[in-house]
């Protein structure tokens, strides 16, 4: 595929896969995905507790399309792709000498993990794309880095001033925070 997100996924996977650890198994033996998944998280885990240390979350987003602008309701619709990266030491598995240095999960795994509460606080509506299932990707890397990728459709406000039509300029904004 030539879609930019797949290029980014491939590059990121290659970059993080090259970081190998491995002290848990004798050399030559590696832990398969089943062994790793059964050992995660490495400590008792409560998704409702915030991490005990500051957590840096990197967020990348790009606009796929502005699908509508309405003068009547003074809002706009937008499709976004969002990537979030953060570290969770309880999800590290490099000590197990993994055969692969990343494992992909579906949306169900996210309910079992602490995830950053990032949101658009002024959106009128926000929905994660489904086709036919919720379109959320989760990858866990052996060093404990977590990566989510998802597509959203948002409706946001526009403070429109139409007095100078057709030479008017409108400002439509979304406020993102965690």
Number of strands: 9
* CATH homologous superfamily label: Neurotransmitter-gated ion-channel ligand-binding domain
Alpha-beta content class: alpha+beta
Mean pLDDT: 83
The ordered string of helix (H) and strand (E) elements is HHEEEHEEEEEE
The rough form would be described as elongated
- The termini sit apart by 33 Å
The unreliable regions are 14-23
Helix content range: 10-25%
Count the DSSP helices: 3
Percent of sequence in beta strands: 25-35%
Describe the main β-sheet briefly.
7 strands, antiparallel
CATH topology: Acetylcholine Binding Protein, Chain: A
What Rg do the Cα atoms give? 20 Å
Count of the separate structural domains: 1
CATH architecture: Distorted Sandwich
Family: Belongs to the ligand-gated ion channel (TC 1.A.9) family.
Subcellular location: Membrane
Signal peptide: 1-18
GO molecular function, one term: extracellular ligand-gated monoatomic ion channel activity
Feature tags:
7-stranded antiparallel sheet, alpha+beta, two-stranded antiparallel ribbon, 178 residues
In short:
It is a multi-pass membrane protein. This protein has 178 residues and is an alpha+beta fold.
Description of the structure:
- Keywords: Ion channel, Ion transport, Membrane, Signal, Transport.
- It is found in: Membrane.
- The chain starts with a helix and ends with a strand.
- About 6% of the residues have low confidence.
- A hairpin with a 3-residue loop joins strand 6 and strand 7.
- The chain is 14% helix and 34% strand.
- The chain contains three helices and nine strands, in the order ααβββαββββββ.
- With 178 residues, it is an alpha+beta fold.
- It has one domain: Neurotransmitter-gated ion-channel ligand-binding domain (Acetylcholine Binding Protein, Chain: A, Distorted Sandwich).
